[in-house]
Amino acid sequence: AFRSPAGGQAVALPVPAPLLLALRCLLLGGAAAALLPYGASRGDRRLPDGDDESSGAVRLRRPLPFYEKPAFFAISLQIGTNGIISTQDFPRETQYVDDDFPTDFPAIAPFLSDIDTSGGKGTIYYREDDSPEVLGQVTHLIHAGFPSTAAAAFAPTHAFITTWENVAAYEEVSRSLEPSKKVNTFQAVLAYDDSDTYALFLYPPDGLQFFGTRPKESYNVQLELPARVGFSRGETDYLKREGPYYSVTSNEQSVKNLYQTSNSGIPGVWAFHIGSTSQLDNVMPAKVGEKPSEERSLGTLASTLSSSPTEQNVLDADYPDEIIDYAEPFYDENEDDDIVYLPMGPTQQVRDAYRGLHASYNEPRHSGASLDLELESTLPYPASSPHPSYPDVKSVLPYPVMKEGPSLASPSSEDDVESSQETGVRTPPSLETSDSLLELTTEGLPENPEKDHIQPYPDSGAAPSEMDIYPEHEVILQGYPENAPPFNRGRQVVGVDEDVSFNPDVFTYNPSSKETCEWNHSQCSQHAFCTDYATGFCCHCLPKFYGNGRHCLPEGAVHRLNGKVSGNLLVGQTPVRFSAVDLHAYIVANDGRAYTAISHIPQLAARALMPLTPIGGLFGWLFALEKPGYENGFSITGAKFTHNLKVTFYPGQETVQITQTADDLGPENHLSIKTHIQGQVPFIPENFTVHIAPYKELYHYSHSAVTSTAHRQYSLTLGRINRTFAYQLHQNITYQDCAPARQRWAVPAVQQLSVDRVFALYSDGERVLRYAIANQIGSSEGDDPGPVNPCYDGTHACDTTARCQPGAGLAYTCECTAGYRGDGRDCVDVDECAESFHRCGHGSVCINSPGSYRCECLSGYQLVVDRHSCVPIPPPSNPCEDGRHTCASTDRARCVHHGGGSFSCVCLAGYTGNGHNCSDVDECAEGRCHQAATCSNTPGSFSCRCEPGYHGDGIQCTPETTPRLTPCEQERHYPQPGIVPHPGRHEPQCDEQGNYRPLQCHGGSGFCWCVDAAGREIAGSRRPPGTAPPQCGTPEPTQRPQTMCERWRQSLLEHYGGSPREDQYVPHCDALGNFHPLQCHGNSGHCWCVDESGREVQGTRSEPGVPPPCLPSLAPPTVRPSPRPDVTPPATGTFLLYAQGQQIGYLPLNGTRLQKEAAKTLLSLHGSIVVGLDYDCREEMVYWTDVAGRTVNRASLEPGAEPETIINSGLMSPEGLAVDHFRRTMFWTDSGLDKIERARLDGSERRVLFDADLVNPRAIAVDAVRGNLYWTDWNREAPKIETSTVDGANRRILVNKDIGLPNGLTFDPFSKLICWADAGTKKLECTLPDGTGRRVVQNNLNYPFSIVSYANHFYHTDWRRDGVIAVNKDSGLLTDEYLPEQRSHLYGITAVYPYCPGGKVHLVY
What we know:
It is a single chain. By secondary structure, the protein is mainly β. The strands form 24 sheets. It has an eleven-stranded mixed barrel. Strands 3, 8, 9, 10, 11, 12, 17 and 18 form an eight-stranded antiparallel β-sheet that branches. Strand 37 and strand 38 (768-778) form a beta hairpin. It starts with a strand and ends in a 13-residue tail after the last strand. Residues 965-1032, 1042-1110 form the Thyroglobulin type-1 domain.
């Protein structure tokens, strides 16, 4: 563009393409992106620092075109902290910052993520610029990306420049984690004139150091959402239809590509045409170079699935992407273990004959529209060609069929089927034999006892209206491929048999004493009131809310559900396992729509699960549209229930069981669901589409249970292939009702669920399985044939956040639900915080959320029971700081605070006593100096000086006439001055003449190297441990067996996983494998002396910084070790004790529920690794094994009790431990010595029970009443579980098949079963003491280590979760979990009862 000499407007002149390309290369070359000038010196304004700030409306000097002409001209822009620009006010960040595109509002997003600039963490600048210098730079960059289009003539008149400089990701405040130092710098430039707008996103080299942010409310779930980059038009009209949008990034790798690649030919420079007064359907990206982008635009989805012109549809056209279709947002540290494919069977040949099917999704958000699910055909028709008519296709049905309209003709042979080539469609070779692939699977379908009738479409010979051809590049979502025959539109009424096997009273309860609202109103929802009845209290939802009283949701609001899905399936003949994949559901309650998406599910399993719509159908029943006088599921069960479903497929008789468990409402009223799928399902080949006809289903209601039994059909279609199959389902939903109000229970005994639309799709590209269902709940007698009020069939025009209020006839009104305001057809969120409609009290902050708000406490405050008020957190009392302790003076003792008001006193080094009274130790009287030295005692210390005629440090004195030591001997015995002996110091090896040996090896690290005569290392000769030592001119030392020190070291390293932390103890061995006299505990500074067997010399443990002298020629010093903390006494009642490294933890139980808030440390054991753990109920003492100290220990649970070592010799790696409280004996396993031993509880009468045929013994359990002993051996070659009597007689193998790594073992005294947790098979199993009756309780464990049984639950420690997991014995469900605040591996676990189990004892001495 050139300006005229008269200074008029810029004139665009044509530029030859080669010249323009050469100019671009000359000006820009291959250089990386550089930001345009910015900062205060350029007149930039600065956005206020904070987590969610905005600039307010920045008025532009001239309007900016955004998208196409029918859209609008932006007269102002708003800049947001979170890497985004908009033409209007931003909603609250929780409404958009963690969601995928599209947004509900106009958005220009160079890096949409949760950014925080508070506390000086970066700066955000913005300005509008019309200087020739800047406009010239912008023009060159745009022309670089659009060299051969109309953009070559574009000359901007204004540019709006926004720069995010060194901004950081938002992080939760944590005491345990250091703040991240990663920062990002990037820039967005909007260049425009009167007719067009172009955007530039600039990412300088290494300008992006983080690529996503963690959602604020992710809690303990470790997930990070990749940044979103792109553009969104926002909602286009009052019906909130979704406008076009364009997304550049879809996962973390695509974010990383932003500064490494481009679409303009210049790394880090991204150019887009984003607005025009002429035709511009969607954002147009530059085409020079590669780009990791995904383009989506909204097609015209006008066609419906209605069978008559007057029938109005109730489902939108697709899935709500921004709610449930995340781009790789969830991560699993064990992803490789979650999906397991075992060897495939003969079905592989069938699968190879089919190709994948692709689907994309977006979401119109208005109510009352239709849901058209359209799949992009793999056999596309030319855009201009008419849609072909459908040939007659044979329909295979298992029982008699009632038809509406003419019947479908059945060809007698393949020759009767019209060739697809006659209609201009090419048939892939794989389809030539595809008809036979399903032929065998349709034989032998059982006759349906209910005589259900299928009502297919009339065979008009033409395509249904949904099959219209759409322009290229538009998103097409339909329920079956374009060449598929029409399927049943009729509604199928399913007869229901009563399933007598279900127990309707599973969860009823009968309180022993009447409870009243006065003390229990907090158990009700905040949107409920409490009512007292004759036998107790019940909760009831307030008007305009619905639920069971304990959980209430606003009527008319949309709801979200989140959860995890795990499965162990046999698909055809191929096993498939998946664990904790993500489930999200989106519910439009005011018209009964339910959308469900399961992401990252294995492809083979996802296709096979498409017919199982009951997985998403549960949510349809929960939130079904209610007819007058009837209630949906959530109104009855609330947010706590269990859904059990058994499905049998025909003709193959495959059976699958599904369990779905809901456990309360989470933040923002999100329901949490856990789903487990177990069994066999039929294989579905690729490219086949699943069709499920609308149906009706009867549900039977009683107190605490809902049951249903039904038959359903589904068809598989591909081209001309159309095969129909069936399955039978039995389901029950159990929940806890409120017994005192049962007399007032008004729910009909039978209700009918009508499903008007049901779709199932799987997207190969996104790996997402989706279900969409429209539901109504009403009378079992059927609907009144007369007109239906739109509120009752979902055809109203109310907003998705509005309640539909029926009037007379077909009249109705719309009323925004609680937390929203508007006319009912268009509702907006009420900001209760800004408008002071909240109840948050002193010390709290109001946080707005869609339709509601929550109160959060300021730092130093905690929320009280009303969930609105905050009270100050009382500061912890520290007697050591406030002077309330009773320790000796600070020059003699130190006070150690243990939390709360507890403390202990420790005498300083050089003093002895109990900490309250400390007296000086006279080291001279103990002979601490050499015999030829003079000793001088001082308070807390002493000094030594060699007498005349001797030289040395006083600890060692040598006559001056003694021959001088060689350099090697000097270095070995007398390190350089100032160097304190420590385990990591290398002691050189000397030969008989005192010279350096040519080969030197480090006793601690295992490295070896060669040295010269002066002891200097020869460069290049160093070898790491585990490799052959270097050849140093002397014969290679012969291999010797491992010493005791080396074996113990190896055993501990295996426990630490090969790489110990800095604070963990590893024994230090010298070059010959002997124990180094001085041993220290990691980096703690605590050191002690050991004898030749590695046992600690009593009285030598020192304080940090003062290692004791441990030379063999000296008597041991008498520096006393610091006393260990005493036992913190537990409360009365039943509780769990668990081992966690250097401590034993206390976790109380309330019934069988974990009281996590009352958990605490029972006993701290510095330098220990506690593995085995058990409890003696007679003397109330806890026993444990310590693999670091190689000891067996015990401690009383009485206040102030201290640990006592009862076995401290002859142990290598003591692990499992079991206490027989009847016989007053204990048993333990030693995986280092491969032994099982027994002793009295005081350590006496010790003897070996077994020392043969053991490889890795670990867990051990005892049946004290019957006198039987059980143990596991996790020998990887032949794992087994064995048993004997408690005196070692009658040893035999109990289990040795189908086990892998049996870590945990427990004897259940209630069921008399022996049960084990296997980290190899991931199963929890039980068997009778004779090995019969084996059954699986849970088959989806993570990495269990130890297990204990109590009442109707198992509790096991888990190394993958680093916590305690509760498992219900009857259902196998994981019911609870406790994760200690300090995360590290948990080992043994035991249960402590307030009583001793009784029974007749068979003594076997």
